[in-house]
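Problem 12. The chain below contains 392 residues. Write out its predicted structure in token notation.
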Amino acid sequence: MNTRLAKRMTRLQASPIRDVLASASQPGMISFAGGLPASDTFPAIDIGCVEDEDLQYGPSEGEWLLRDRIAQDLRQRGFDVDASRVLVLSGSQQGIDLVAKLMIERGRQIAVESPTYLAALQVFKLFGATLVPFCIDSLEQAVGGSDNQQALSSDMLYVNPTFQNPSSRVYTASQRALLATACDSNQTMLFEDDPYRELFYQPCDRQPICSMLERAEWVYQSSFSKTLAPGLRLGYLVCSEALYPPLLKLKQAADLHSNRLSQRLVYRMLCDEPVHARLRDIQDSYRSRRDLFSEALNEHFGALASWQVPTGGLFFWLKLQGALSIDTRKLLQPAIEAGVAFMPGEPFFIDPDTAPGYIRLNFSHTRPDLYGHGLATLATLVRSATSESDEV
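Solution.
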């Protein structure tokens, strides 16, 4: 490596998801890998008349009309905010980058769920964070006292409590209240990532934990990628008052502002009267896909793994049976060669080498008529890899 590069570059790892998606884009590949929305859920976009103003530089905060519309939605979720506290992002991944720049220096303790969103792990590690595991179950059951205290004493706690990526887990109402109380009591800065909240298929609690905080600092972010189109690259964050000015400065330094044409399109779609009907159609479509995927999983993985049927989100999270708990990263290349892409579970953990035997499977992107063949192929590879491991 060029010795003139910043030392932090030695901590930068390639995104496993992006690497897998490059292979998954090959013709004929059955992909259960990335969290790609179904293409048939994308809205029909008529760009309409483009005004000169939309082609000019814009405000770093984002377009006022869009921010005001977002603030209206946030107030319905329990936030006491207006447009002046909303920052439009170039995708919620930018929010993770901005918050990491704001909060992390080498050696700072950042608490995360394990497993958690691996792109967040990638960014946090790049900036030199010391990652501390957090588990809502331990907090709820009042066990692991020292571990809980270390997590709550960290410089920041990052959580994805609604249809978590990768596990699709959703916190209960009591867990949300408990975590809010713990953050307030310990003055723990909470970073809540909430990109899947509208993709729910049965009743569950989705109240943002940040909306319940009274004393602790916080950042809450979400995205339009899952409900509109990821190619628009738009998300947003809202935060406690003191954090907004420095986050805005970081946004200015990063990209000046998010794409103005995308903001115009998103605003128009959010104000469209049928938007709620469209969301219901998406939920119905994904619910059907989820149920069909569950049936195919029962047929091909029933004796190989355990899982929970997700109440929302885009993923099934499989734990291979004890005797089958191989490093699933070793399955990836044979699977791709067999025409099936999936996401190994190990990279979602703080220490990937200590958590073998997990697989994340996306059910939204691949056509349902290909579920059976793809899962049968993957199940065969699991059995084969397990047999080879036993022989060794």
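Discussion. The mean pLDDT is 91. Students who got a different answer should revisit the alignment rule from Section 12.3.
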